[in-house]
Amino acid sequence: MPFRQEIIDVVLSELAKSSTNTVGTDRNKKVGKLWTTYSKSDIEDTLATLDNRQYEVRYYRSFEMDTKYGFGVRRR
Q1: What confidence score (pLDDT) does residue 63 get?
Q2: Are 71 and 25 in contact, with CB atoms under 8 Å apart?
Q3: Please, are residues 70 and 34 in contact by the beta-carbon 8 Å criterion?
Q4: Mean pLDDT of the chain
Q5: Among residues 50, 35, 36, which one has the least CA distance to residue 3?
């Protein structure tokens, strides 16, 4: 699966604006749009390139809707 620079650009840009050092598909429209634009494997492969000493990436499933998945990134 290809690395997508656009995913990194959006996530890091939105993290820089976040007062909580956290962005996620449920809280941020631009990050949420990534989930509908790119495949899950593209997102996972791209976010795997982030330095895990600086960023924590989590994937989750919404409890309200079993089919709704998402992700969050937190700056450590």
Answers
A1: 63
A2: yes
A3: no
A4: 89
A5: 50
